Amino acid sequence: MMPSRSESIINVDSVSSSVGGVASHAYTSSKHAVMGLMRNVATELGRYGIRVNCVSPHFILAPLTKEFFKIDESAGVRVYSNLDGGLPKSICSLKELKTLDASNCASLACIPSSIGHLASLQCLLLWGCSSLREIPDSIGKLESLAELHLTRTAVAELPRSIGNLQNLRILDICRSHITELPGAIGMLTKLLDLRALGCKNLEGLPKNMGELVSLNKLNLEKSGITSLPESISKLSSVQNLSVRYCQKLRGLSELPFGITALRITCQGPALPQLFPTNPSQETHSF
What pTM value is reported for the model? Predict the structure, then answer.
């Protein structure tokens, strides 16, 4: 190694080497030992041009981790977070990045506009980022984006540029602060799944909803919607529609004939006359 003066040594450690109180004394001590060894060796070999570094992973939902913390897949959330306020602007340099998962980063308050440079990004997971209030307009530049998850964020408005996401398949705004969806959403011709469960501030949908020709699932459970636009009848690909527990919903317009699963909540002793008259429509109510 020393003659070549261009080698690199990578040690694998744990976040427990810098965060206390999340593991046993023995485990934490052993990880501090790895970090200390790395620093010593780096000092010793640095004069020979040999780089010594350490990778300290955060929580990873692996079999040993699930057994240690006694959790299953559904409980696999981020235990640690080193994001203080926002993502670094330098993130734009990750040209090959396909998945950005910042789930449960409660301190994440902003997304840099440079995120628009991530041309390869396909999945953006911001689930549980409770301090996040705004999505930058530059998100419209993510031509490869297929999934956008904003569940349990403080985002109240989506940028109009979202209509440029021509490859978006899943839009998840469940339990967010969204008050309305921009009309540009009608441009999402490849959107398959729109999730707005628990959006209590969402009172209606854009009039051009009927332009979502590929939409298959529409979940509006526990939202604040008062009515559905008439254009919803044009959603020929919709098979699953849920408006359960929408207490402000006054009625349903004519529904798409292709629906195979309709979920509603009845406030009275009988089903109201809310359905289209087409006898061929198969309807399931819960």
Answer: 0.68
